[in-house]
Amino acid sequence: MALFQSVFGMLYQFGDTFAFLVISCAGLAVIFGMMGVINLAHGEFIMCGAYVTASAARAGLPLPLAILTGALVAGLVGMLVERLVIRHLYHRPLDSIIATWGISLIATQGVLIVLGSTMQGVGTPLGSIDVGGRSYSLYRLVLMACALGLLGGLYVLFYHSRFGVIARATIQKPQMAHALGVNTGRMYGLTFGLGAALAGLAGGLYAPTMTMVPTMGSTFMVESFVTVVVGGADIFVGAAPAAAILALIKAGLTAWYGQLFGQIGLLVTVILVIRILPGGLSGWLKGTTR
Amino acid sequence: MTLNTTDTVPRSRARRLFSRLEGPQTMGSGPAFWTVAALVLGVAAAYPLIADAWTVGNAAYFLIWTFMAMGLGVVWGYAGALSFGQTAFFGLAGYAYGVITINLGTAYGLTIVALLLSVAIGGLFALVIGYFMFYGRIQGVFIGIVTLSVTLVLETFMAQTAGPQWRIGEARLNGFNGMSGMPPLTLPWFGGDIVLYPGPPLYYLLLGLVVICYLGLRILLNSPFGNVLVAIRENPHRVGMLGYDVRLYQMLAFGIGGAFAALSGALYTAWGQYITPSSMGLTSAALPIVWVAVGGRRDITATLIGTLVVLAGFQTLTIYGSQYALVVMGALLLVTVLAAPQGLIVGAMTLLGRLFQRSKT
Questions:
Q1: What ipTM was assigned to the predicted interfaces of this complex?
Q2: Where are the membrane-spanning stretches (chain A) (predicted)?
């Protein structure tokens, strides 16, 4: 029983980290993988989703609906940002980083000014289950399922839907897609909106487990960037396995040495991975199958 | 003046070195430019005579940051590698200065040694990070992400060093609250050390350092090394084909940038006698980017002027409404990137140069 208990504990820890990495990096990976834009305002889209979710939930909306509202609002904000700013910077990737950072500064400080330094959140729903004398949060188990569902949903969307085909065509050969009658400008806008909505979804899903502060987005930053760097440009071949590997490293190190070493382990992994596999996991995997 | 054959060789070498103060990689040349530069320096040198000690200490505070900005200018503007993590080297050197001075004390000019050691530590750390990044051939946006992760992880690490077990010799790291109580820079002098508290003496020391670093960077950037850096920024593949080791040049440029950030960090710690983990946080990391982007990253003069202007503006803003300062910073970044991608100061300098040209012809 003690063995089962510790195995379950390890699995829970691993699954929890894995879910966090997948959910928090999905939006970033879509925007980077599809458009080559590093979105430093990623954390602020997460914050936007979380704030909207919390407000909607406290206004009486059931939590799943509130989370969807949060994602939707973040997505709309994302499309607006794309139209106003990002659109002008597609041929200058470094400048798009700077611009999104500017947006992030404005958003964090703006929210602090308008809404104050903290906001009332929503409690973690669903309670906890008891396994071998230790209690585990049921909501976090739901989050793990959400992470897997998210990966599956994105796979279907990008590989088995009309939107996915057109989006991938636009990314690979913009001129050709344009010549075939695709409104490429609209596709870029929609893809960026999708990325922002996924970030909002991350914020919504984690809103019940976190304190609502304007800087909450930055807690997601390091982990999601690390996952995208290790994974490379492709979200399915890269980010998902990267999240699994990083979760294993982080959960292991956290269990044995504590939170800090988990984070340092992540950093060391990243530095080693970029030295050995410059294209990230997806570049390496695709290179070997080619 | 008699011609001495034995020192013509070194003299011509020196002349060649100084002729590199002007060149294709830096704006501003000719007697007009240097006259204006000398005038500005003269005004800066006379400033403590007309201002009170507090204002001079404050001006010294501005000068401290210019080193980090110039270093970022070299890395980002000239070598084309956007680093978000200059604050990592800043913070590391700041902590190094604190730890070394608290342990060694201030006698015999040891604080100067501590300053040099901190710069070396920061520069070496930058070289190591640069080795992994550039020899891993990661490019473009990824450099920004990796450097940002480095500085954020360092912040997290320093923030949790609260307990009494986190000490290096006599120096307690003190976690989130940061280190304090390290001595300021002290110059050994006949009849008693000169302790450089914020005020005119420190101001003059920093002003001298800024002039040396600025002129040194001008020479470096117009040398073959600087030309190769600019060529790498424009087209790394072609530079590689011409037989240069692109990775080595980028790594060295990154090391130089890191050392400059480290100089800022050590000086900052010596100036205020404290250093906190938040100096490596996200907001702090954004500031050098703002200065350099707004001023103009592709010219060291514009970077220097832009940094001072933005810093002064930022402080004025903080007096009137500190909460809006960051919003304005963000808006400034957006406007610069969208409307004047070369930077505002570079735009103004190009305009001035064109007016001069027109009046000449």
A1: 0.73
A2: 18-41, 61-86, 98-118, 138-158, 187-206, 226-249, 256-277
